[in-house]
UniProtKB/TrEMBL annotation:
Annotated signal peptide: none
Organism classification: Bacteria, Bacillati, Bacillota, Bacilli, Bacillales
UniProt-listed InterPro entries: AAA+_ATPase, ABC_transporter-like_ATP-bd, ABC_transporter-like_CS, ABC_transpr_LolD-like, MacB-like_ATP-bd, P-loop_NTPase
UniProt name for this protein: ABC transporter ATP-binding protein
One Pfam entry name: ABC_tran
Gene3D superfamilies reported for this sequence: P-loop containing nucleotide triphosphate hydrolases
Residue ranges of domain ABC transporter in the record: 5-245
Length: 255
């Protein structure tokens, strides 16, 4: 099967001359349909930059992008970038980013409103998503009336309501306790089983990374290691295997 999303030689530099920072250096990644890929790496290794480029939030200095095997030549130019973001991508962030003046259902409905869907369709899809994340009963609550875990579930419903092919998640459990984190990750797996989208998730936490199919380790803007989580291992065993890999990556860094 063709990758849902593929990038080749993706590079990003910020600034010019003496202040030039190379955040990404010729990164190649192919995300398969339904695959859950985790990105790990030290602070400043380029993880968020990579996610922002994949999501069309920023444009690269150079590189190629393919969607379902077709090269997207105008991908990073407007209005294509906005169209692509609204159609193909869902985002979840560490700090939920919900609109505080809106209720849970209004927040979830927002992407459909922006895309110009009909009222009936918006209502049906929004209710379905709130049921899937287990918050239908709380649909009229505002973010301040919900726990962090509930807010992140609303954010997940909002990210997936337009049925994007790819969910991009930047430290989505970074602001949750470990129990709520585990619940959120189980929910991510459930949503993937229901809706079939691929997932690309950034985390510092090896326990979070055990939920992915594949883990990519970034260092200095490059992918330096790739690791597949094993189905025959417990979550704890997977976490230990990942910590070993992280140690390797860090040791290379020190040398
Ligand atoms: N807007 C920007 N302007 C200048 N430099 C930037 C900008 N955004 C990121 N950088 C630099 O690019 C590099 C990669 O940053 P990035 O945020 O992608 O790393 P990260 O791995 O996500 O880090 P963290 O884990 O701390 O979030 C860093 O050196 C950072 O300082």
């Amino acid at each position: 099967m063709k990758p849902v999303l593929e990038v080749r030689k993706l590079s990003k530099q910020y600034g010019e001359g003496e202040t030039k920072v190379t955040a990404l250096q010729e990164v190649d990644v192919a995300l398969r349909p339904g695959e859950f890929v985790v990105i790990m790496g030290a602070s400043g290794s380029g993880k968020s930059t990579f996610l922002h480029l994949l999501g069309g939030l920023e444009s690269p200095t150079s590189g190629e992008m393919y969607i379902e095997g077709m090269q997207e030549l105008n991908f990073f130019l407007e209005p294509h970038a906005t169209h692509y973001r609204r159609e193909k991508i869902g985002f979840v962030f560490q700090f939920f980013n919900l609109v505080s003046a809106l209720t849970a259902e209004e927040n979830v409905a927002l992407p459909l409103l922006l895309a110009g869907h009909e009222k009936k369709d918006i209502q049906a899809r929004t209710s379905e998503m709130l049921r899937l994340v287990g918050l239908y009963e709380r649909r009229t609550h505002r973010p301040t009336e919900m726990s962090g875990g509930q807010q992140q579930r609303v954010a997940l419903a909002r990210a997936l309501v337009h049925r994007p092919q790819v969910l991009l998640a930047d430290e989505p459990t970074g602001n949750l306790d470990s129990q709520t984190s585990a619940e959120m990750l189980e929910l991510l797996l459930k949503m993937r089983a229901e809706l079939g989208q691929s997932i690309m998730l950034v985390t510092h936490d090896p326990m979070v990374a055990t939920y992915g199919d594949r883990v990519l380790f970034f260092r200095d803007g490059k992918i330096v290691k790739e690791h597949y989580n094993r189905d025959d291992q417990s979550r704890r065993e997977r976490a230990f295997a990942l910590m070993d890999q992280l140690r390797d990556v860090t040791e290379v860094e020190v040398r």
